């Protein structure tokens, strides 16, 4: 039984009621810290007003004092403004972190559910047909020691033991159809089974046998089960007993035909049960796509005709096949699992990287920061759900075009907008793309190098500078 899919342990998930209540309780406690922060900002604002009043009252003082107090007032005002921006970024970052952690947990849960579904279709329930056995009984002598009147006595007796006759030939054909609209099941197979088994009595003094041919294991419905010997139907002597007695003289041969229709699955396999297969032929026709052979026993021939695939296994000489072999519904391999959850967990750090580049390149207002953060996390939310139905790299490429178009509005002029585009490419588009592709280290390194080169060009060399009229607050 496969374990149910679970999320990432210890990761906050706001879709869980218990964690949501705990988060609300912690938020109430954290609100006290917010109150103290607001009070501190109010005190800082009053201090700034006091400094401005002192500067105004000292207008007639010495020029040196006026310059000193004015510089200190300007520096304090910039510090206060930076503290306000830092508070805004933190306020935006905390909900963004919980959004990303919730999405990461949900995506991890969805990936696990997909893996469990594929694993169930490959290694779960199945229709398994066992090779029939031809059983006969012989009596053989055996001896044992016992104690009689205090003496050890050897006793010679005979006992009946079972032996099995090897099948002389097996000609099997099974037609498989698939139903996928079954509640609670990935798929169900309908098997139409027909097999001819040849038995040759190579013994000299044995002529009583039992042809034991059980129905497939794992079926939910068995219909039209029939066993015939040389065209004559054999009747079951006891319900649930699939052993049919028959007589066969030494040197003679006979043929048994087994037919049935069964439902189960979602695989069909044939098990040799440790027997040697000689003059064996199995033709499995899967009337659905995509179908593939199971257990790694490669068919001798595969024919594809539209949605139907025919697999043929043929062994002329004695062959021992250890694993059951047959047909299962092929599914696309699930690759790169865990990529999106890892990206979502690192998304808050990428957001800080991007915001820092914007701050160092453009004059950013409260309104622009809030809008940029909303766009960034909305793009991540869109990526999370688009990646379930299409390639994640292609999805992020399409989303990046929209992100760059929206980022163009951060600038008041063409030069400022180009600066915002460069910051977005280096700080958001490339880092997220780097976490999606296999060469993450190389892509992240290029993004970091581009960010450093841009800042150096922007501030050290003055190759790309903004004019005052380009700045918009």
Secondary-structure element order, as H and E?
Answer: HHEEEEEEEEEEEEEEEEEEHHHHH
Main sheet specs:
8 strands, mixed
CATH class of the largest domain: Mainly Beta
Give the radius of gyration.
39 Å
Q: Can you list the strand order of the major beta sheet?
A: 8-7-10-5-4-13-16-15
Instruction: Just name the CATH architecture of the largest domain.
Output: Sandwich
Proportion of residues in helical segments: 40-55%
Low-confidence stretches: 1-5, 64-70
Count of helical stretches:
7
CATH topology of the largest domain: Immunoglobulin-like
What is the number of beta strands?
18
Tally of domains: 3
Sheet/helix structural class: alpha+beta
Indicate the mean pLDDT: 79
- Tell me the distance between the termini: 61 Å
Shape descriptor: elongated
List keywords for this structure.
473 residues; alpha+beta; Immunoglobulin-like; 3 domains; 8-stranded mixed sheet; 43% helix; elongated
Could you give a short description of this structure?
This protein is 43% helix and 28% strand.
List the helices and strands and how they pair.
Layout: H1 17-57, H2 63-123, E1 127-130, E2 133-148, E3 151-165, E4 169-179, E5 188-200, E6 208-212, E7 219-229, E8 232-233, E9 243-247, E10 253-264, E11 267-271, E12 276-277, E13 280-286, E14 291-294, E15 301-305, E16 308-315, E17 319-320, E18 325-329, H3 339-361, H4 366-386, H5 392-407, H6 414-436, H7 440-459
Description of the structure:
The chain has 473 residues and is α+β, with helices and mostly antiparallel strands. The chain is 43% helix and 28% strand. The protein has three domains: 1-123, no CATH class; 127-329, Immunoglobulin-like (Sandwich), CATH 2.60.40; 335-473, no CATH class. The protein contains seven helices and 18 strands. A hairpin with a 2-residue loop joins strand 15 (301-305) and strand 16 (308-315). The longest helix has 61 residues, at 63-123. Residues 1-5 and 64-70 have low confidence and may be disordered.
């Amino acid at each position: 039984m496969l374990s149910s899919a679970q999320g990432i342990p210890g990761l906050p998930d706001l879709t869980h009621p218990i964690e949501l209540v705990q988060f609300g309780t912690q938020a109430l406690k954290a609100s006290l810290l917010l109150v103290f922060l607001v009070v501190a900002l109010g005190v800082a604002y009053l201090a700034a007003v006091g400094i401005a009043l002192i500067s105004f009252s000292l207008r007639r003082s010495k020029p040196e004092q006026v310059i000193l107090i004015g510089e200190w007032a300007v520096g304090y005002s910039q510090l206060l403004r930076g503290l306000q921006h830092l508070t805004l970024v933190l306020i935006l970052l905390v909900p963004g972190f919980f959004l990303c952690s919730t999405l990461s947990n949900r995506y991890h849960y969805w990936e696990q559910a997909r893996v469990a579904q594929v694993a169930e279709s490959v290694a779960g329930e199945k229709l398994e047909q066992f090779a029939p056995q031809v059983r006969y009984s012989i009596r053989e002598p055996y001896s044992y020691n016992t104690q009689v009147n205090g003496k050890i006595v050897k006793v010679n007796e005979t006992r009946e033991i079972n032996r099995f006759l090897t099948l002389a030939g097996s000609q099997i054909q099974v037609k498989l159809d698939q139903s996928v609209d079954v509640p609670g099941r990935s798929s169900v197979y309908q098997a139409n089974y027909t097999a001819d088994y040849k038995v040759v009595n190579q013994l000299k003094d044995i002529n009583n046998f039992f042809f034991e041919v059980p129905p497939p294991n794992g079926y939910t419905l068995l219909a039209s089960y029939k066993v015939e010997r040389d065209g004559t139907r054999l009747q079951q002597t006891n319900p649930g007993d699939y052993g049919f007695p028959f007589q066969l003289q030494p040197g003679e041969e006979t043929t048994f035909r087994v037919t049935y229709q069964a439902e189960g699955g979602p695989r069909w396999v044939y098990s040799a049960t440790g027997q040697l297969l000689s003059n064996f032929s199995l033709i499995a026709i899967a009337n659905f796509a995509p179908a593939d052979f199971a257990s790694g026993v490669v068919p001798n021939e595969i024919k594809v005709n539209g949605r139907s695939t025919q697999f043929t296994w043929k062994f002329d000489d004695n062959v021992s096949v250890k694993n059951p072999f047959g047909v299962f519904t092929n599914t696309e391999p699930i690759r790169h699992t865990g990529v999106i959850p890892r990206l979502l967990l690192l998304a808050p750090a990428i957001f800080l990287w991007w915001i820092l580049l914007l701050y160092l390149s453009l004059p950013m207002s409260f309104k622009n920061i809030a809008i940029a953060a909303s766009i960034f996390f909305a793009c991540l939310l869109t990526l999370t759900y688009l990646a379930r139905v299409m390639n994640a790299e292609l999805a992020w490429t399409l989303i990046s075009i929209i992100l760059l178009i929206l980022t163009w509005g951060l600038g008041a002029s063409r030069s400022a907008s180009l600066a915002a585009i460069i910051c977005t490419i280096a700080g958001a588009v490339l880092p997220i793309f780097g976490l999606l592709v296999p060469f993450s280290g190389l892509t992240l390194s290029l993004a970091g190098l581009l960010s450093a080169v841009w800042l150096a060009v922007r501030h050290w060399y003055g190759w790309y500078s903004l004019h005052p009229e380009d700045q918009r607050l």
